[in-house]
Amino acid sequence: MPDPLVLAADLETELIERKSRFLTRLHRVSSVEEADALIRAARADHPDARHHCTALVIAPRGEAAEVNRSNDDGEPAGTAGMPMLQSLLHAGLVDTLAIVIRYFGGVLLGAGGLVRAYTAGVEQAVAAASLLRRTELAVAQIEVSMADVGVAENAVRVWAGAHGALVEPTDYSMRGATLTVLVAPEQLEDLAADTSRWSSGRAEAREVARRSADVPLT
Q: Which tens digit of pLDDT belongs to each residue from 138-169?
């Protein structure tokens, strides 16, 4: 199963369909409460719009189940919220709220036209969005002496840049420093070999945990 995707940033796009104006907002959210607040804000921003249709996907967390929710907000049942939700699911997005704000243009679109318009509004916004991939990374730590910190930090940054890994701030102590790298599990051996090379065997990269992280698409 492919890794899910999340928004790197919120955005808004516009679609005109037979004189009706469809404003699509995509928001990154982590809870139903946060989504509800954004929906209220959209209504306050556009009080004259006829419809504020929504779709929400929140990834499971701990014992909390995945949330899939949609609302037609006065449009004929199944013509707005559900097509929007299906567009988010088809794109592989999680922790995402879609709001489509419709200003009626005086021309009836019919059920089929509404489904196409709301689907197109979300698909257009997703295509314009900057996305990240949510994946499980290994947390590797490298302990070095203070005398080796400069060499270690430079070597780790170079390796991470070449392999798409994430480097966390160095943790200093009285005895030395600990460098933490978030890396794809299959790259652990390569990191260990590189660490042994630049440290002449004085340091090793060891896995201490696994962590979910949002990384750029490659």
A: 999 999 999 899 999 999 999 999 998 999 99
Instruction: Give yes or no for a contact between 54 and 109, defined as CB atoms under 8 angstroms apart.
Output: no
DSSP state of 93: B
Kindly report, residue by residue over 109-133, the tens digit of the pLDDT. Answer: 999 999 999 999 999 999 999 999 9
Q: What SS3 state is found at 147?
A: helix
pLDDT given for residue 86 in this prediction: 97
CA distance linking residue 35 with residue 38, whole number of Å: 5
Report the candidate in 37, 132, 56, 34 with the shortest Cα–Cα distance to residue 100: 56
Distance CA 7, CA 28 (A): 6
Within 10 angstroms of residue 48's Cβ, the number of other Cβ atoms is 6
CA distance 80 to 73: 8
Task: Read off φ and ψ for residue 27, nearest 5 degrees.
Answer: -125, 140
